[in-house]
Amino acid sequence: MLRDDAAPALMCVIGHLRAVKDPFRTAMAARLLPDSSKVRVLQIGGAMTDGMAKRAQKEMIVNERYQWLGEQPQSRVRQILKRSSLCVLSSRMEGGANVLSEAIAASIPILASRIDGNIGILGANHPGYFDVGDTRQLARMLNRAESSPEFLAELKARSESLTSLADPTREEHAWAALLNELRPGRL
């Protein structure tokens, strides 16, 4: 079971509410979970349109598992991410989401849509992929993450195995090497 049997299983969705992010996919999947599920979806990110804000507010009314916090300071977002049992990225297309790097750096288990940007970071064999827009498949994966400690451990181990990708020192060295390579006279 995720974290503590008595506690809700906190699933975070982080990113501005805009169509390309498919922001309500996790909320819709949470509606399909068994009544006994303790999954709670916490969504963080500003609504990019009035329609998105209204949809998030309506979702909170009809879906007791869902809460939208709106835009939050970066420090609060990191706190919520670190408290989460799972991070879900449901984007329809993405070049490489910042939240993916943040989740990896914090060793948070990840469920992600099977798109090129996510595959490029997580690798082709990541065990937590679901097909873009497939609410039922995501619901099955949320249920599995909640009910199977082995699956959740596998997702966490995968995030832990990628933490070097999010290491600031490694990134600084890579940037320095690239800038050195681009110096005049080096080309």
Describe the structure.
The chain is of the alpha/beta class. About 45% of the residues lie in helices and about 15% in strands. A six-stranded parallel beta sheet has the order 3-2-1-4-5-6, with helices on both faces. It has helices spanning about 25-30, 50-60, 75-85, 100-105, 115-120, 135-145, 150-160, 170-180, and strands at about 10-15, 40-45, 65-70, 85-90, 110-115, 130. Helix 1 packs across helix 6 (about 135-145) and helix 6 crosses helix 7. It has one domain (about 10-180): Rossmann fold, CATH 3.40.50.
Characterize this entry briefly.
The chain has 187 residues and is α/β, with parallel strands linked by helices. 46% of the residues lie in helices and 14% in strands.
In which range does the helix fraction lie? 40-55%
Query: Alpha-carbon distance between the termini?
Result: 55 Å
Profile the largest sheet.
6 strands, parallel
CATH superfamily: Glycogen Phosphorylase B
Major β-sheet strand ordering? 3-2-1-4-5-6
**Overall 3D form:** globular
Number of helices: 8
Low-confidence stretches: 1-6
The assigned CATH architecture is 3-Layer(aba) Sandwich
Oligomeric category: single chain
Looking at the structure, the CATH topology is Rossmann fold
Query: What integer is the average pLDDT?
Result: 89
Give the class from helix and strand content and strand pairing.
alpha/beta
Number of strands: 6
Order of helices and strands: EHEHEHEHEHEHHH
Beta-strand level of the residues, as a percent range? 5-15%
Instruction: State Rg.
Output: 17 Å
**Domain tally:** 1
CATH class category label: Alpha Beta
